Amino acid sequence: MPWLCALCIASAPLALAQPATANWGLAQLMQELAQVHSASASFTERKTVQVLSTPLVASGSLSYVAPDYIRKATLLPVPENFVLDHDQITISGGPDQQTHVFSLNADPRIGGLVEGIRATLAGDLPALDHYYIVRLSGDAANWQLLLQPKNPGAARMIKWIIIRGKQNHLDGLDTASGNGDHSEMSIAEDVSDAQ
Fold first, then answer.
1. 101 burial class (0-12, 13-18, 19+ CB within 10 angstroms)?
2. Which of 1, 8, 88, 125 could form a disulfide with 175 if both were Cys (CB 3.0 to 4.6 A apart)?
């Protein structure tokens, strides 16, 4: 399964320092992810923001169509849509009920962040290597991918992204920002929908 989602936020679990098993690795994972042409899932995201005393919890749905369409539809607490379609990002709804449209290339820091997630979903290892230091741990049945931005500007925004999954299905996406905020997203894919 493939997933985009949260862009948020602390320090990577020590388990990620462990190497992947000898018979399975990054190239195999990317091949498996590249075989997914479309998928949908529900998500629950818990964001810890330094200036707030309690975490923010959001839920909604995710959609992916290879190689470059991703939609995150937040239903609670406030409806909001994030859509990446080729190189255009559209964000609508949210607290201000406005629609914002911009090019992925408008800001290299954001572009690199989104491109890293898109490249993972598409199984595009050369693109992933372009933007991130990539570390894989675990095995096909339970893996974790740690992405650390190579671009210093992107690294100030996002310290790391951890993507968790089983085979070609994602079940989690965690992020840590440079300001100490972090996000933990659990993903429940509609396996019958994955193709």
1. exposed
2. 8
